[in-house]
Every structure is written in C-alpha cells, then in structure tokens.
Amino acid sequence: MQELIEKGKSAKEAAYRMASVSTDLKNKALLAMAEAMCRETEYLLKENTVDIENGRKNGMKAGLIDRLTLTDERIHAMAEGLRQVAALPDPVGEMVEQTRRPNGLRIGKVRVPIGVIGIIYEARPNVTADAAALCIKAGNAVILRGGKEAAYSNRAIMQVMQKAAYAAGLPEGCMHLVEDTTRESATALMRLNQYVDVIIPRGGAGLIRAVVENATVPAIETGTGNCHVYVDASADLEMAKRIVINAKTQRPSVCNAEEKLLVHQSVAETFLPGMIQALTEKGVEIIGDETVCAVYPKAIPATEEDWAEEYLDLKIGIKVVASIEDAIAHINRYNSRHSEAIVTESYINAQRFLDEVDAAAVYVNASTRFTDGFEFGFGAEIGISTQKIHARGPMGLRELTTSKYVIYGDGQIR
Amino acid sequence: MQELIEKGKSAKEAAYRMASVSTDLKNKALLAMAEAMCRETEYLLKENTVDIENGRKNGMKAGLIDRLTLTDERIHAMAEGLRQVAALPDPVGEMVEQTRRPNGLRIGKVRVPIGVIGIIYEARPNVTADAAALCIKAGNAVILRGGKEAAYSNRAIMQVMQKAAYAAGLPEGCMHLVEDTTRESATALMRLNQYVDVIIPRGGAGLIRAVVENATVPAIETGTGNCHVYVDASADLEMAKRIVINAKTQRPSVCNAEEKLLVHQSVAETFLPGMIQALTEKGVEIIGDETVCAVYPKAIPATEEDWAEEYLDLKIGIKVVASIEDAIAHINRYNSRHSEAIVTESYINAQRFLDEVDAAAVYVNASTRFTDGFEFGFGAEIGISTQKIHARGPMGLRELTTSKYVIYGDGQIR
Fold first, then answer.
1. Shortest Cα distance from A207 to chain B (angstroms)?
2. B364 and A19: CB-CB below 8 Å?
3. CB-based contact, B376 to chain A, within 8 Å
4. Is the pLDDT of residue A106 over 90?
5. Residue A1 has what pLDDT?
6. Do residues A401 and A113 touch, judged by C-beta distance below 8 A?
7. pLDDT band at residue A269, thresholds of 50, 70 and 90?
8. What residues have CB less than 8 Å from B186, skipping those under 6 apart?
9. Where are the beta strands (DSSP E) in B157-246?
10. pTM value surpassing 0.95
11. Which end of chain A is flanked by fewer CB atoms within 10 Å, N or C?
12. pLDDT tens-digit series, residues A183-200
C-alpha cells in the first residue's frame, strides 16, 4: 500500500532525528500546536461538519454523532490537552540504573523513544490530538489511522498540528495520518514491520481481535474490562454499597466500570436486597444466578456467556459465592485482566486477593473506576494495557519509551 | 492440537498456584531437580544416544552432533546451572514503586510472574534445563517445544525435572515439554492465546521470522546480531585493533560477535593494513568496499546484501566512511538492533554515538561481546531481545516477570 510505505519511511527517518530533539523544542512545538488549534477553530469546525453530515446520511446514532462533533469548547479542550502534555516531565534520557562491573565497564540503562508508533483508533477526533501529543512528547514519530467516520476532522486536525510542529522545528515526518480509511489500510499498518516499531489499537473488542489475529508488528493490547467487585464475608456493607454504585453507575460505558458483583454467601441475605434496590433505583438491570433470582425475582437469569461479557451499559451480573477461593477462581476464569476489587475488613483476605487475582490493577476497598492514567498520577494516558508484556495497566508517557543499554568502557575485551 | 490444549490448560492452572509459591520452595525444587539430574545421568545418557544415532543416520554434521551430545560432564554442568538459578534473588514480589495519591489511595506497582511462558528452541538439550529453571524461578509455568533432533534427550530431561520438582512440592503442571516436534506444533503453540501469555523463540533467523509471521500470542524476539565496530578518526588504534580482534574472533558463532567494521577515512590508511593482517592471521575472510579492496586486493568485494548479513563465521565486512554521521546512518540502516561499538577518544563523538545509534546495547571503547546476561551481572540469561517492547538487550529473571498494580483504599470512589 503506497501511502503506508511512504508515510512509514518518512516516519522512520524522522524518528531517528526525534530521538535527539530537546525537551524544550518538543514543548515549544506542543504549545505551538495548541495555539494553532485555537486559531484554526473555524477551519476545524467546517471540516467536522462534513463528517457530521456524512454520519447523519449514513444513519449514525445520536450518541456517536455527539462523540464525533467538535465545538469551540471541545477544540479548546483539545488544545488544553496539548498544553498539559507539554507541562509533563519528559521521560526520555532518564538513567533507570547504572552499574559498574568488576572489569570496569559502566553499564547504564537509559530511557529512549520507541521509534515509530502506529495507533489505530475509532471515531473520536480528539484522539488524533491526544495520541500525537503523547507520542511526540516521548520522542517518537507517530502514524495515526483513525476511523472513516471522522476522516475530515482527523485530516484537518493533523494538518493544523503538522504545520505548527514543523514550523516550530520538529523533524518533518514525525507525525502522519493515514488518509486511506479502508480496513485494508489498518491491516497494512499492523504489518508494516519495516517501519513501525509498535502498534497500539484503541477501540472495541473487534479491533483488538483484528490486531491479535493480523498484526506482525509487536502490539500492545488496550483492552476490554470485565471488572468485578467481590464483597467479602467481613466487608463493611455500607462501603461495599457505595463502591458498587460508583463502580457500576458513575460512567458505565468505560472499560474500568464494574460489570459483575460477587457476594460471599454469608452476607448475601443481608446485603443483596438493599444493594439490588440501590442499583435498580439508578436504572441498572440485574442479571443474576439462582440465589439472586430467588431474592429478586425480576432478575434475568444469567447464562454462561453473561459471566464473560463486558456490558458497557447499565447492566450488572450478580453471583453469590461460597468462599473467597470461589470468588478468585471465578474472576480468574472470566475476567479480562483489567481491574478487580475486593471489599473486606480481613487482612488475610485482602492480601490473598491482591496476590492471587490476575489483573492489571487489583483493589482493596476502592472503586475499579480509578484505573486511569490521570487517577494514577501519570498526567496522561494513551490507553490501558490488558496484556502482560511491556506495559500493564494505565500507560502514560513512560510506557511510550523503551530502554537502551549504554556501556562506557576503556578498552575492555573478553 | 490436543496435546497442546491439554498441556496449555494444565500449565495455566499451575501458573495461578505458582504465583504464590514461596522463594524457598522454588529454590528447594531447583536443587532437587539438580540432584535428580546427577542421579539419573545414566538414563539421560541412554536417551541421548538415541538422538545421536538418529542424527548420524540422518547425516547430521559433526558440529551439530557435538552440540547435541550429552556427557557426564555436561549433565553435571546443567545441574550446576540449576543450582545457580536457585542462588539468584527472586524477582517476584519486588515493589517497584508505591505512591500515595491525594485521595489517600496507595498505588503500588509490584513484580509478578507473567503466567505461562512458551519457549520454542532448536537442537541443544541444555536449553531444556536452563529455560525451565529460569521460568520456574520467576514464578511462571513453562511449555517448552524443542527441536526434533533432541526429542529423546529433551523428554528424558523433562521427566527427571518434573518428577523431582513435583516431589519437592511445586504445583503439578508447572512445566511441560511438547512431545510433538512437527512444525505444526510450534505454530500451534504460538497461537495458543487462551493459555499462553508470551512466546520466546530461541533460534535462528528462520524461527524468528516464523514467529513474527504466525504468532498471535505476544512474542519477544530474541535476535540475530549484525553488530558493527566503528573506528573513529580519534580512536586509539591499538585499542581499536584489540577490540575488533576480540569482537570478531573470540567466538564468531554468537549473536554479539562483530560482523562489520567501519573505519573513518582519515585513519583508514594507517589502520587498515595492520588490522587486516591481524584478522587474516586469525583466519578471518575479508569482504570489503572499494577502498578496502584497493588496500587489500585479496578482499572479496562487498555486495549490498553483505551489509545486512549476519555471517556467524570467520568473515568480516569492512567499509570506510567519510564521517561519524555516515557511520551512524550506515549502522541504523543495516544493523539488527543488537550491539554496536565506537572506538574513539572524542567525548562529543562518544556521546553522539550513544545517543543516535538504534540498538539494544551501544558501547564506547569495548567489545560487543559483552552483551550477555552474565556479563551484565544478571546472573542468568533467557535470551537477548532485539525488539523494543517489554525487554531490550539481555533478558534475565526480571524480564520473565510483569507488573501488577495493587491499590490499597479505605472506601474511595470517584
């Protein structure tokens, strides 16, 4: 695919130069990009209108149209996002460790940019600015491939950013948008090993599956979240209720929202009626196992599929378990390795849950909703990794770098 | 493939239990495995004989037969390797960092096992013991898939290790050998996403390519090494000669051996004749660019392919460059991101080379032969990663772990 080969080559060349660009210059460019975005609001809105009209013509749902829509305010928010990235510390150049070997070699491990990062994402145009800013700040070149629904908006945002960044002095070619928005271009980007060092998909389960199946470039899965809250026998039940309501209802459409509630059998009778009432008052649909359906006959009986599903909606699956062992086994069987919480007053059970549950983030007595780069204090987030290599959990600037060993010798041989 | 599904499932279940096995128990098991290996020397030698006979029947080269052959001494060396792994510090449980957020959440990042590691390797039976020991020590379950040439030896080693490890108390299923040694079993292992968390290929370029092409499980490429030594204008030429001889000839068949020599034009005339003489005295074949062929007419003219090739032999490609820029550009174009060295007395050029060369390990005034887990002080090595995500350069026990965020709350909600 000619477009990808050209952009890949250009990005690779720029990546070598990006590796030695100073923090000052990167920050200056990010601020110039923010300024340009504000100055070009009118142009961005005009291009965005084309996407919105196309969306309406194609019968796009109101919710998606809303996510696609740019406004004055949203453009200023994007610009503000760029300024925030400029304000973050630069991870590049940090000496992670340095040792001196018996033969006198000094071996240092230093953070360096990854090189060329490919990002495949879906409809929201603000990702174009966010993702480019984070990759650039970490010293990488970036190739973005957004969804066709936002093609005009994405192209306009990229043009405005490129012009400002290159005028500020960043190497030309350090950011690209793939204009071909066919499925083939996404697949080609995942297989562009010659030029791309890592692929990060940001989107739903279908996109993640396509990357797992087709990518030959190393990928970082940012994933789905089938997150559980387990209410232990010794839980503070009022705290449990607050945590469940928050984890389930504060923002049900995101990956760190709770999808399943597990309740120890010894507290089920006391806890479930009030909990279910509080959930239904918030409009949450209850899917339950046999015990739950007996307590609350309006519950929909859970199927095997329910336990593995990420609803991303005002729906919750509830199951009564006989022990903490059963809770942990259920979670490790069905979860998506994202975020899991226990509510307990037991020291032993808290430790055991932290040790044995297999997930990127495991909580004691807190809502799963905190799994987020901002909440973790990283100041930014490119996604939440649910795989185990390279990065696990919220990924900030540091996760957009790799390391290099630098070795200072004075003639050592083996 | 039934065998893989069964072993995958068994390994996955064992992996959950392995995550909480104490360091003491892991060490006890490793020592028991070492002891069993020494006790069962006769059995191991007998099984090894079958592989050797099959190798001879199939016309295997003497060098390969030698690598395949077990002796009393080699079996004791394998056992000693297991004891050394037992003596290494356990990476699991290390709290890498812990922060306290404004809302009181304490967020810790702790090292945990990866889970199930699949290793695909070629002929040498000692890898069976080495790789299993490292994976186990880092708290993982492991599925090994060795080459068919060593099938009997590998099976015998695995049986001896399993019996000792399980008797010592390690969870059954924590180590498996795939007995099917067809190409299909390797491919199936790379695609066993349901049970395998990461795949590490250990072998030549063909195996690495097969993994890049076919793996759906995240893989860590351990790679080929087209390593360069660049002799700068200001180099101490005696030191340069020592380093080149060492890097090229001390062990030419390994990935951190030098394959190419770049020489700054201003020292070419002084340096090349003596250097070439020293190399040829060591039996090294010279492949050169035009200048080199002019200085040394017996040199074989280099083709474009030569610059990218990993000879793994007593052969060297030599090129004269006009500047350090040209040297860096040539290296970044042709190298395999493994190990690169500059010999220089210039502070500026040393820094520049360290900054701009894209490789796992970049040296000033030392031989590339030091890129090795033991030389780096890790006490062990599972391979040398030439990719940029997860691990770069020599991988020790730490690189066989991932991290998990553990979050201590007291009722926090968003």
1. 14
2. no
3. yes
4. yes
5. 86
6. yes
7. very high
8. B120, B145, B210
9. 175-177, 198-202, 227-231
10. no
11. C
12. 999 999 999 999 999 999
